[in-house]
What does this fold into?
Amino acid sequence: MLNIIWVSFFVIAFFSGLGHLLFTGEGILFVRMMEAVFKMSGLAFEIALGLVGVMSFWMGIMKIGEHGGCLGWIFRFFKPLVAKLFPDIPGHHPAFGSMLMNLSANVLGLDNAATPLGLKAMKELQSINPDTESASNSQILFLVLNTSSITIFPITIFTYRAQQGAADPLDVFIPILIATFASTLSGLFAVAWIQGIRILDKVVMAYLVGALFFMGIGILYFASLDSARMQQQSSVASNFLIFSLILVFIVTATLKKVDVYNSFIEGAKEGFQVAVTIIPYLLAMLVAIGVLRASGALEFVLNGVRGFVVFFGLDGQFVEALPTALMKPLSGSGARGLMVEAMQTHGADSLVGRMVAVMQGSTETTFYVLALYFGSVGIKKTRHAIPCGLIADVAGISTAIGVTYLFFS
It folds into this structure.
């Protein structure tokens, strides 16, 4: 899918430039497209280079949290809930452990740890799947919880915002929490409705009511503030919570006699490797997007959508963020490239720059995760996995647009 999208960007750009040349006799768009190729190629390297330090720091902190046992705390906290949501898994089956570790890693933003744990969990779920070519109910719910991607520590997004010059890279933290919560809740309800899972079970309701209570209190409080105070207080709250989490990781690991410094170095090395690894992906997407924008094709489509929105008396700023939203279910690297390009074009602290960051943190890459997880165990019939995953995507993106206007407009 990403291959088709990437190639189509260049093909559309070429014919847009060719059409302009034939009708006006001017080839200026081809000049601009080639300028975009060189500009975006350099930009991709600059961004990756700027990410090295920040990414290494956060990966180091997360490694301390992992070695200090914070992942284990989350594991134990969510265990009763997971047991109720997956009733067809035997009580002491090893799949429970892998699923909980995967979901815990996602909550903490440990993508590198979450993926192998998720693949392991999917393999263990496949061992009790009566139809090995068709996804079981448990496999579908597990997949949707992964694609809805609830996380309390979206490290990568903070890193990109910092690299793009945001005055306060963490000011999107609370909006992201709200958006990803809406995504996860929507995906869960969709699967529960189809599979007949008892959401009204007292254990499930205790978790959901507790989460909704704290989320509702936060939304009501921030909604009662004027725009300036909302931004200022959400920024303070975000930074306080994140720094507190860093301190908890460090203190917990210290009390458990963990070599905190060497744990940090171990994680920082992984962060360096991650930053270097993403250069080809950033290069590919930024160049393709830059060429498409320089050709005028992207602006033509966005202007059409913007005109439609404005016709109904709505604010059209969110239209600039729609490419990121549409790419998100298809490709993580593609959506990341569009996010960075939007920040470059409009500014990291613009409404659009913040909106694409919240969108990026609201949900995961549905089709990629589905292909990776189901493909790893040979599942061919996905049943209701895709519709439920897309419901979570739509809820997360819609909420991201709403909360960005609420917090930053």
